[in-house]
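Instructor's aside before we start: the two examples that follow are unrelated to each other. I chose them only because their records fit on one page, so don't look for a connection. First example below.
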Amino acid sequence: MRAEERSQILALTQAWTQKYQNTRWPSTHRARLKITSSSDWTFTRLRSGGTWLRPTNVAVSDQATYAGFAGELLKLTQTLENAEAGESVEMNEDILFVNLNEEGVLEFEIGCSHVGTTQVEILNSLSGQPVRVDTFWWGGINPGAENLLQVALPVEAISQRLP
């Protein structure tokens, strides 16, 4: 490699390093979603109020056939046979929330089939051990293409450290 090429590479490296160091990264807020369902399928979607990133699966029931993100949905499924028998499955997912309006609300949708119920617990994880801040339950039947419940959580419930 010629001296001129080395000099260009060093200059580019320095420019990119400086750009990285000067970047203002958004605040992140770690929370845990604990979803328990006796339905054959359920999902939770963040509709507005922020963005969720980097989901990390903490725990999943052995009977779950799927547990994780699928596009914008946090999904949990089990066999229809198990759901009709009243069996429940559970998942725990740690998620980073960003782009939050500190004075606003996070709006979620919970969807599930017409078999069974779903419970979504939201836990604040900023102080180390997760602390439950709210629980939402859905087991009704709404008309329309999707069977949804819309719920809201104040942003401060996950953005402030709890004792």
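Example two begins here.
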Amino acid sequence: MNEFGYERELARAYYKLLSALDWQDDILIAGLREGLNKFLSNAYLSCFRGAHKYHKTHFVSLKALDKLQRKDYKGLVFEHLVPKRNHLQKVCEERAAEGTLTIDFIEDLLKRYWWLATVTKEEDATIPKFTMPNDWDGKAILARYESVNIKLVDNPFFSRPKRN
């Protein structure tokens, strides 16, 4: 990482990928869809060395924290606080297809919406999928979890990636 931090590095890599694609080629995009869906998460995880992926989330539920402290990773889920498909990926892909995507735009979205939590599978099943609550203000990143009474706390295992 350089002085900009992982958000800037992720933004640069994502920009490079999305800008290189022919968005008019439906077969190309269909063939790449799974990779496009997983790119940001895989790139983010690569910014960290050694730690388990559940230690790389910003937040953790109390039930998941108990499991993490016991090094019991079974039944845990790596989850996005704000659904990445609608609030990051779709917006960036649309801009890339229009030729208006910038690194700064991606970085801004990452800083606002790239927040992750470790929760249990049971908790994950109660969280609204792919959408934020109807009354979401665009800022309260914990809104989906609060809507189903899941308390998230800072993940004590998380630390920002070290600079290279």
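The chain has one domain: 6-154.
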